[in-house]
Design brief:
Length: about 350
Amino acid sequence: MPQNNRIVLASRPQGDVKPENFRRDSVASAAPGDGQVLVRVIYLSLDPYMRPRMTEMNSYTPPFELNQPLTGGAVAEVIESKSDRFRAGDIVMGMFGWEQYSIADARLLRKIDAKAAPLIANLGVLGMPGYTAYHGMLRIGQPKPGETVFVSAATGAVGAVAGQLAKIKGARVVGCAGSDAKCEFAVKELGYDACFNHTKERDYDAVLKKLCPKGIDVNFENVGGPIFHAVFKAMNNFGRMAMCGAISEYQDTTPRPGPDKMFTIIQRRLEIKGFIVSDHMQSMGEFVRDVGGWIKEGKIRYRETVVEGLDNAPKAFMGLLKGENFGKLVVKIGDEPKL
Ligand SMILES: NC(=O)c1ccc[n+]([C@@H]2O[C@H](COP(=O)([O-])OP(=O)(O)OC[C@H]3O[C@@H](n4cnc5c(N)ncnc54)[C@H](OP(=O)(O)O)[C@@H]3O)[C@@H](O)[C@H]2O)c1
């Protein structure tokens, strides 16, 4: 069995994640049992939800186990199969460890057509983040032509798709992002009508008034914190909020106060709905058909940050929590097979 390099959770972070919360080790990879496969991980997705899973927080997914590899969505190649569902050489998607080789229950894996789309797209625009945007924007936000839509983390894996979907539906779309380069990308490449750099323009009430003079009808929330509070105040009557994420709060050690004027929800008849994409997987086929088609038509564009090597995963993940990624963040752990 091959030697398996892994990144395990060494300790639970208090506040910001630090290098000492991770440890690299190396063990002999196990052999697959009946119904299992041994895979070689090619691309590992790094996602914000991993930060709450590093704590003991009682959430919709259980905490990562101490001294075990962290896990994440990944694309991998089957090396050995003890299941009649897969054979060696198949390319699959599933939840695997932050490691070079993983054992998995074959029933939890999905075979992917490696020729249909670039492998990384299955972790981003055509995978979980893209589908999160699709569900949140189209099912909850339901933007109409002429309405104003706001998207925070506008160029991220989820935000970039969410903003472009709102444009496809005929809305005016405004976003915020963490650098001038990201804002330029949002406007020039993704088609946002406007985008502000939230690290420079700190008077969020004033900038939203300027960029959203008619108020906001749909908010796609990725960040939380002070930007969310300002957006909340700018919401129009009958506005909708798709509450997707609150990344600015994931490293907090004490709870933050919420928006102070909760009566606003009633006065403005707001619909505020939190969602977790894994509860809504039934429309995945429709999503792949629609978004795949819009990518071919050039209506949806995307960008990825690919970090080379498993050993760089912890640093890349810490960077994600500070906005250092530009588009979907993926770690390349192994080479793509030659097709
Ligand atoms: N509900 C669901 O089912 C679901 C599924 C997937 C993702 N999500 C959520 O969606 C959000 C976006 O996820 P993603 O995968 O698309 O990640 P991403 O946007 O590709 O990367 C995270 C981005 O968040 C921004 N950010 C990080 N720390 C921040 C801070 N302290 N304050 C403000 N902005 C900060 C940065 O963008 P800037 O540089 O532009 O600030 C960073 O690049 C996250 O909140 C995530 O938890 C929810």
